[in-house]
Amino acid sequence: MQEETVLSMRGICKEFPGVKALQNVDFTLRRGEIHALMGENGAGKSTLIKVLTGVYTKDAGHIQMEGTEGEANIRSPQDAQNIGISTVYQEITLCPNLTVAENMFIGREAGLLTHRKEYEKKAEQLLKNLNIPARARQELSSCSLAVQQMVAIARAVDMNCKVLILDEPTSSLDEKEVQMLFSLMRDLRSRGVGIIFVTHFLEQVYEVCDRITVLRNGELVGEYIIQDLPQVQLVAKMMGKELDETIEIDASGKKNTPTGETVYEAENLSSSEAKPFNFKISRGEVNGFTGLLGSGRSESVRAIFGADRVTGGKVRMNGKQVRISRPIDAMKNGIGYLPEDRKRDGIIADLSVRDNIILALQVMKGFFHPMSRSEMEKFADEYIHTLNIKTASKDTPVGSLSGGNQQKVILARWLLTHPEYLILDEPTRGIDIGTKLEIQRLVLKLAEENVSVTFISSEIEEMLRTCSRLIVMRDRKIVGELTGDELSQTNIMKTIAGGEKQ
Amino acid sequence: MSLNKTGKAAVRREPLTDTQLLMTITICIFFAMYAIAMLTLGGGFLRPQQVFDLLNDNAALIIVACGLTVVMIGGGIDISVGGVIGLTVMSCVMYLNNGGNIATAALMAIGIGLAFGLLHGFLVSYLEIQPFIVTLAGMFFARGATTMISVNPQKVTHEGFKALMKSKIEIPWLGYTAKNGNLIPARMEIGVIIALCCVLLIFLILKNVRHGRNLYAVGGNQQSALMLGINVKRIRFLSYVTSGLLSGIAGFVFMMHTGAGNATNAAGAEMNAIASSIIGGTLLTGGVGNAIGTFFGVLTLTTIKKIVVTSGLKDPWWQSITTGAMLCFFILLQSVVLSRRGKKRSADAAKS
Fold first, then answer.
1. A79: nearest CA in chain B?
2. Which CATH number describes the domain made up of B60-309+316-332?
3. Contacts of B342 in chain A (CB under 8 A)
4. Which of B220, B349, B350 sits opposite A96 (nearest CB)?
């Protein structure tokens, strides 16, 4: 290794109750490089970062920093800063009501009085040096997000950081702002700062990084020089599939043949979270959105359901134009949505199974037309039976059920409204394999009954088994659509990765 | 970016911060209101003594409002201040009437305030209990203790203190000539000097002392403040200590004005103080506000009450109704101003 190592982490282990978040992970950062840390959700990226910044304490392993004798002792973010490790998070961790200069120097001064004039001068100098388009005495809230992020970086630079961690810095920036940030990163690289860049955006990695470390399921997959790892390979490494591994799924599973009649159609639909996209689905079709985490798949379906603020586009249900700006509009048009985050958006933990099941139907009827007790009991019994929900009784609080059964309760809630179009966002995440299969079977059965379903899952096999059409997303855009024979793991990964580095 | 341009940027005046903007609005409204009162109501409003009366009557309110401003900038709330004033006054009166001396009484007032402040600060910031609940408990406790000391109103009988109460600063050139030809000088109580010192001191601390700046950071975004290396707990703790201390001082000033202890002394002072702070441009959400603004907030609030009384609406409920309307008006005004500003800024950011 001819380059100078700034930071080396060896054999890092971290365990949470029931989960091995990191198992024997190594990571090396050299002076003056931009090093991407990649991995899917749950791969252990953020755990590794948090171990490094002292938010978590590691269970085992060894961290060594250049300039520090022996083992680096990091027990709090302050410790990390003191030995030269600074972090800039996705959410700005500065104070919007203070000036740019104050944000760069607050918390670092000693003594009773603040020396405003002095550090305003210093800040001005630093901003000029780093080409950051902000003024020292400007209130931070009047700067754009990108500039705020750059101010945070400037603060880190002024603290003589040797290791700069950028955790998803680009997710809320637009194209131009990203470029500004990148030129700042390149500038810092040439000054010898080692930068750890955590991101979901593959293209950005290839644009600025020198090296990539890939994690998967808390384990190290490998460290690669960027030229040696084409984008397709990277995706394969992140997902843990080799390219030649072409176990094609039995096609007999996909019997859903859409009738051709379009049920839902969106044209240039966009929301506060999703960029404009076109989409349609036919009666009895099962399709899927796929892509890496953060590619915009959940945001797109949330836009369809009106769960985020819809900002534009036309929507047609059965050929008739409708307006869907809130979830209730979507429900009235026969759309159901099982959210990605079951605990936050799905169940109401303290209500009974029965109340959770009838909730959506009751909302659609309006609260001035309450359902009778016997109706509720009947519906609850029916769905507990058909979906085989394992619960002590109808009155059990849904929070005490297992994850799989909670998911079934939410499914029951939507089935009860007899939707024409049902969106399932990660319905099988974190539930046992038996229930997973049950849910997959149910999806296919629904399709036979002429319900259109959008099925989103992080597991490609599962999508191949259920979907007849896959929409592939990357960096918030739809980049491909696969049907019929094109549906194979290899193809999907190729599409996710996009062409070779442009 | 040429040197020229950045050089210019350094001299360029920055737009007002939110704190300065809200404060400016209040000050303008106060002067406008006072001018209108002078023109339409005339009479007392034409004499400088009117302003001094406002200050004399509300010196204690100004002091506690400063304390509340400090707490509110840090994102907290302290509703015990009225109770603490009551307790301070009652204790000091009883002590003086039983042969105490003035200096010890003053120390006692400060001590009582400080004790409440320390306890509130500890509970809120180190044990992380809701500030509203903590100071509500403090309020009940203080009121209860006041009544326990004496159910009946107590007048100060201490001669030295009576003399202190009567001693006023006379400013002849702001006086006026009475009908019988005598010059009546403008009179200001000693408490006003204390109040003005408090305002100035708090203003300077918030502006130039490290802890003061850190307080704005804590109120602006607590999580960020923590990440920026600020000892958030200590800063919040200190904000409650300051508020407690100021309520003790306010108690003493209150006593110098009224000269009597009463179980209902300064009842509702906390609400008036909160209202004044808000009118002066302090945001309940934290991070914005300053003492000068609060000072004008108190003046605005009390002037409008005076105007209501002077214009013939003598029933006490009119004052409350006006206060309510006033507060509502200011909050609406602030949110409109700030949201328009937010929109303009994001538009600017998008353009640049």
1. B229
2. 1.10.3470
3. 141
4. B220
User: For the structural domain made of A5-239, what CATH number should be given?
Assistant: 3.40.50.300
Domains A5-239 and A261-334+420-430+449-494 agree in fold: yes
Chunk chain B into consecutive blocks of 10 residues (it has 352) and report each block's average pLDDT, rounded to whole numbers. Answer: 42 73 90 90 82 91 95 94 94 90 93 96 94 94 92 88 87 77 83 94 93 92 85 94 96 91 85 92 89 94 88 82 88 84 66 51
Residues facing A28 on adjacent strands: A8
Instruction: Tell me the nearest-neighbour CA distance from A64 into chain B, angstroms.
Output: 23
Query: Under an 8 A CB cutoff, do B228 and A103 touch?
Result: yes
* Residues of chain A contacting residue B217, judged by C-beta atoms under 8 Å apart: 95, 98, 102, 106-107
ipTM: 0.80
| CB-based contact A96 B12, cutoff 8 Å | no
CA distance B247 to chain A (A): 24
Q: Do A107 and B217 touch (CB under 8 A)?
A: yes
- Picking from A491, A37, A460, A462, the residue whose alpha carbon sits closest to that of residue A243 is A491
Count of A–B CB contacts within 8 Å? 96
A301 CA to centre of own chain = 14
User: Per the CB < 8 Å rule, is B10 touching A135?
Assistant: yes
In chain A, the N- to C-terminal Cα span, in Å, equals 29
Q: A328: helix, coil or strand?
A: helix
Alpha-carbon torsion, ordered B101, B103, B107, B109, to 10 deg: 70
**Cβ neighbours of A426 (radius 10 Å):** 19
The values of phi and psi at residue B176, to 5°, are: -140, 165
Cβ within 8 Å, pair A141-B10: no
Asked if residue B245 lies in contact with residue B116, where contact means CB atoms within 8 angstroms, the answer is no
Distance separating alpha carbons of residues B217 and B74, to the nearest angstrom: 8
CB A453 within 8 A of CB A264: no
CB-CB under 8 Å, B229 with A78:
yes
Q: Could you tell me what percent of chain A has a pLDDT over 70?
A: 93
What is the tens place of the pLDDT at every residue in A296-346?
A: 888 889 999 988 888 888 999 988 899 888 899 999 999 999 988 888 888
Q: B61, B23, B70: which is closest to B273 by C-alpha?
A: B61
Q: What are phi and psi of A450, to 5 degrees?
A: 70, 20
Going from N- to C-terminal start, the domains of chain A cover 5-239, 261-334+420-430+449-494, 340-418
d(CA A150, CA A129): 12
Specify the DSSP element, H or E, that contains A235: helix A231-239
User: What would the CATH number be for the domain defined by A261-334+420-430+449-494?
Assistant: 3.40.50.300
Q: Is B208–A113 a contact, with Cβ atoms under 8 angstroms apart?
A: yes
